[in-house]
Structure formats: C-alpha cells, structure tokens
Amino acid sequence: MQGSSSKNFETAIILLIIFVIMFELNYLMPLHRDDYDYSMIWKTGEHLSSLSDVFESTARHYFLHGGRAFTVFCLILFLWLGKFIFDAANALMFTALIVLIYLHARRDLKFDEPKILAAAGVLAWLCLPHFGEVAIWKSGSTVYLWSAVPVALFLLPYNLSFAGTKNFGNSKIFAAAIFIFGIIAGCSVENLAVTVTLISAGTALYFWRKNSLQAWMVTGNIGNFLGLIILLAAPGNFVRYDVQSADKGILIHIGNQFAGNGEMLIFILPLVLLLICVFSKSKNSPVENSHKKILAVTGILIISYFCDNFLARAVQDFCTEIIFPQFDPSKKFLERFDNFMMKSEEFIIYALILFIIFFKVRDSITFGGNLKFRNFPYSIFLFALAIFNNFVMIAAPTFPARATFSSVVMILIGALAILRNSNVHEKLFEGRTGEIVKLGAVALTSFTIFSATFITLNLREENAKRLAIIQAAAAKKIYFVKFPPLEIKNRAIRHVFFSDFDNNVTKEGLCEFYGIEDTWVKDLTKNERRYFENLQAEEIKTNLSDWYISGIWRKK
Predict the structure, then answer these.
(1) DSSP 387-445
(2) Helices 215-232 and 138-163 sit at what angle, rounded to 10 degrees?
(3) Do 137 and 131 meet the contact criterion of CB atoms below 8 Å apart?
(4) Other residues' Cβ atoms within 10 Å of the Cβ of residue 193
(5) 3-state secondary structure of 328
(6) What is the radius of gyration, based on Cα positions, of the chain?
C-alpha cells in the first residue's frame, strides 16, 4: 500500500507540474491572428455578447468556412467566457492529453508507472510539431489539441476492450455517452476523423466476428459516422477549398506529403534517437572525448541566447556589412536572413544537448541478450496508422506540419508501449543510464521551457503596449496606427507562436475588433523609437499625449 501511495503522489505531482507550465505559457501568450476573428460573430464585426451569439457564430462559420463544428464552438465559447478561463481550460486539456497518451500506451486504467507518465509529458513537449501553434495559440489549440483529447477518450474503450483489460458491458447510459463522443470525434479535424472512423469500425467488426460485439461499439460507430458526415458535408468546406486549392495540381499535393512528413521527423528526433538507443548495440562513441568541449560551446551559446543573441547578431552584422553588400541583396532577403540567424542559435543549442544525451545513453545502455516486447505489434500498428493518418492529408490543398499533431500522438503512444516493457524500462530508467536520461530530459525541457517563458513574457509586454496605443487611438477617433517591428525573433524551437501586427490575418481581425482602419509596421526614427520604448502600457491608457497620437502615429 505504501508503494501504491507513493506512486499516486508522484503521478499527482507530475500532472500538477504539466498543468502549471501549460497554464503559465497560456496566460502569458496574448490573443493574436484568428483569435480576434473568432472573438466576434463570424464575419459580422459584432463582438460576442451572449451565449446565443456563440451558437450563431458557430453556425455562420459552418456554412461559410468549415465543418469543425465542435472545436470551433469550444473556441468561440471560451473566447466569450474570457481569456483567463480559456488559459486554464487549455492547460487542463493538454494535461488530459498526457493522461490519455499514458493510458493508451498502458492499455489499462492503472496509474502505477509514473516514470512512463513523466516520459509522456516530456516527449509530448519536445516532439509535438509547432507546439506553440497546436497547444498554446487559442485558435490552433482548439483545432488540434481539443480534437485529439475527445478522440483519444472515444477510442480508449475500444483499445481496452481489444487488449482484454476492461469489459464495459451493455450499459445503455455508456452506449449513449459513446454515441455522443463518437459524433464529437467524427467532426474533429479532417484526417483524424477519417482515421478514427476506420479504427472504430475495424474494432467493431473484429468483435462482431468473435460474437462479442457490445451495444456501445455499435452506437459509437454510428455517432462517429454521423460526425464525419457533419464535418465533410459542411458548405463552408467547399468555399474554403475553392480558395485554397486554386492552381494546385496533384504534384503539389504529393509534394506536400514529403514536406509535412519530413518536418514531422525533425520534431520527433528526440524520440527517434531514444528508440535507436533501445535497439542499438554499438558502443564507444567516437565523440566521447569531445563531450566536455561540446558542453562548453553549448554553455556559451546559451549565454548568448539569453543575452540578446550577441553571437548570432555578430555573425549577422559581419554578413550584412561585409559579405552581402557585394551582392546587393533585397530587403526581403535581409529580413529572412535576420529571422534565420535568430532562430538558428536556439536550434544549435537544442541539437548539441540532444546529441550529447544520445551518445551518452547509447554508450551506457546494456540490455544483455535479445529484447522481447509484449506490445511490439501494437506499436508497429500505431506507427503505420500515423503514416496513414498523414497520407489522408493528400486530399488537402495544404499540409502544414501542425497537421501531423495527431500522427505524432499515435507515434508517442507506440513508443511508450515499447519503453514500458520491463527489460527496457529497467535499463533505460534505472542506474547510470537512468541518471543520464533524467538529466538529459531536464536539460532539454528546462532550456525550451525557460526560453519559451522568457520570449512569451517579452511578447506579452510588447503586445500590451501596442493594444493600449490602439485603444487610445480608437477613443480619439484616429484610425491609422503604426508600430516599430517586433525585435523578438526567437521561437524556442516552435514553442512560441506569435505574428507581428503587419501579418494580414492579425491585422484584419485586430482592426475590426478594435474599430480602427489600419495598422502597419515600419522602421522608426531614433526619436520615435526612443519615445515608443519609454512608454508604459498603463500610462498609455490614461495619459497618451495628443502629440503622440496626432503626430508620429497618424498616417500622413
């Protein structure tokens, strides 16, 4: 009993840490991009003011833009309820996803493997593609995160029944509940909805052939199929598809597969390297003697990263002042080079830490004999399912890496099913190897969490200042406002997602929401920038000078 209590305590602490980190990042990240559009009744410009507005906006979106009815309803509802409530709900939803990943890997309802639960949290943080877009940005998280959670919950009874660890019986209440969750899962996000429909139907067919089909399996499939019809038959799908698919032939769709899957592989690299350690028997890494030098370089890069990227900026200045003038590059090229330099430093730090851990773990792990995996066919099935889930996106005109979210969740579940085998678990999480794995996990997550927090905090301050200016300008009936470009370029390996005010998606929704006509981002003179940087958001709201509004910031 004492051991069970200890594991329950560890489980609770792990989940609390996950929730707190996610709530902090959600709280610090301001609304942006599509969040402003969804904060109004869809395409009317009217602010949400009641629950009936939420339903009206959801219906308008369904007919004008797309069929993701459940997730869009949740997005609009929580934007109406308020950002703080949304922040907490988003953090809770991510925590729930980690629990469901663990349960699907465990294939029962026992919480007696806190190390596997912690591994699920760490790997989800490191491997989920474009994390800031799919788990923190409000509009993106409701599409991907808020789709994955009800789908994983819907499929859990099927998985447990297939594994033989739980019999749910023929309760009418349970059958009704699964029917509702089936509808929600069916109208989630397009590729995942197709995949989950095939999984639930295949599982039901398996039990039917074994003469053990239960009522809830049937109602779940019916609900799932109805949800898929609701999703795919939405009039808004055809409107959006006509716009996005213009001039995009089959070769573009095939090329999208290579781009989307390739980017996914980059994000799941920590997991791939971990599995290589499990299956590899090679010893004596050739870079063993270089670890201290690599650590020293990494330390210098980390100092530079948190001190205004002085190394990256030095290289950038050298290139722009000495090398590039000979080729006379365009302004757009220089902007992209600047963006690349700011992001390259963080990726180099991340890669150096990751590969040091990889070689250390690979050189210390000893399995002694052939490995035997209880759930290996289950893991292979999930890996294949992830590939199929991505392939479904071939029908879409675009395939951004964030759309691989649900596929990465499947891969995580399959990998954790391998890691929780006793012979792997003991060797990987115990002794010297366990110390290296734990230290490496702390190093990678600490760097990305601290950098994401640092960047998001600065973004929050800059955003508050800009919004204060917009509100003050709108109150004075001045409808054109300009800002200096955001200096913040880093994104903490995509754990931060934010668009400057010159992004058309942000600009259009923002202007409509606050009642101004235009914002634009422009380089300022030294005096203008000095004045802007000295402004405090709270002072702007109450004491914004007429000179500031009518002079510098008014469109001439």
Answers:
(1) HHHHHGGGGSS---GGGGHHHHHHHHHHHHHHHTSHHHHHHHHSHHHHHHHHHHHHHHH
(2) 150
(3) no
(4) 24
(5) coil
(6) 25
The angle at the Cα of 196, spanning 187 to 108, to the nearest 5 degrees, equals 120
Instruction: Provide the pLDDT confidence category of residue 556 given band limits of 50, 70 and 90.
Output: very low
**Which 3 state secondary structure label does DSSP give 11?**
helix
Identity at 359, one-letter amino acid code: F
Q: In whole angstroms, what is the distance from residue 311 CA to residue 296 CA?
A: 15
Number of H helices and number of E strands within the chain? 25, 2
CA 207 to chain centre: 35
3-state secondary structure of 266: helix
DSSP state of 401: G
Q: Tens digits of per-residue pLDDT, 183-237?
A: 999 988 888 999 999 999 998 899 999 888 899 999 999 999 999 999 988 887 7
H helices within 245-399, ranges in order?
A: 250-267, 269-279, 291-306, 310-318, 331-364, 376-391
Query: What DSSP line would sit under 78-94, residue for residue?
Result: HHHH-HHHHHHHHHHHH
Rounded CA-CA distance 133/129 in Å is 8
Q: How far is CA 469 from CA 34, 321, 383, 504, in A?
A: 21, 35, 50, 19
Q: Kindly state the tokens that stand for 114.
A: 């806190």
Q: Which of 457, 454, 478, 496 is nearest to 544 (CA)?
A: 478
Cβ neighbours of 233 (radius 10 Å): 11
Which residues on neighbouring strands pair with residue 481, listed in sequence order? Answer: 519
> Which tokens belong to 129?
């593609």
C-alpha–C-alpha distance, residues 96 and 309, integer Å? 36
Query: With contact defined as beta carbons under 8 Å apart, do 420 and 106 qualify?
Result: yes
Position 542 confidence tier, pLDDT thresholds 50, 70, 90: low
Record the tokens describing residue 31, joined without a space: 């609304």
* Rounded-to-integer distance, Cα 421 and Cα 408, Å: 21
Q: What are phi and psi of 518, to 5 degrees?
A: -165, 150
Helix segments in 135-268, DSSP class H: 138-163, 172-186, 190-209, 215-232, 235-244, 250-267
**pLDDT 10s digits, 413-469:** 999 999 988 778 777 888 888 888 888 899 889 989 999 999 999 999 888 888 888
H or E element that contains 483: strand 480-483
- Closest alpha carbon to 161 in 111, 119, 199: 199
